[in-house]
Amino acid sequence: MSLGSRLRIESWGIFATSAFYTIVGITFLALLPMSGFPPHIGILGILSLIAAYGMFRKRAWSFWFIIILFFAGTTFAAFILYSVSTTDYLLSIGMVFYLILTWVFTAYAANKRKVLEE
Length: 118
Fold this sequence. Notes:
By secondary structure, this protein is mainly alpha-helical.
């Protein structure tokens, strides 16, 4: 019995999108105490977990959370890249990956918006 049949995964893309936002949400919340509890990281983490739940359950409102996360995440990553690009290469590479994956999964969610409305 495969993993997809046990979980009844109908769309691996939607599952990957919800997994991405789950990982991002947990990572941001885990980084919260290490970075001095800035509220924007906590808000991004909580919104990411809500978006992950909505995508996994195929809720129509999850698309709007992903749009909010697209703009907030892009702004956050661009600010981090601008401020630490020459001092912390590991953080810069992580932010570039986060930025690219945010754009990819937002485009996927926009493409599958009709599936979420059913």
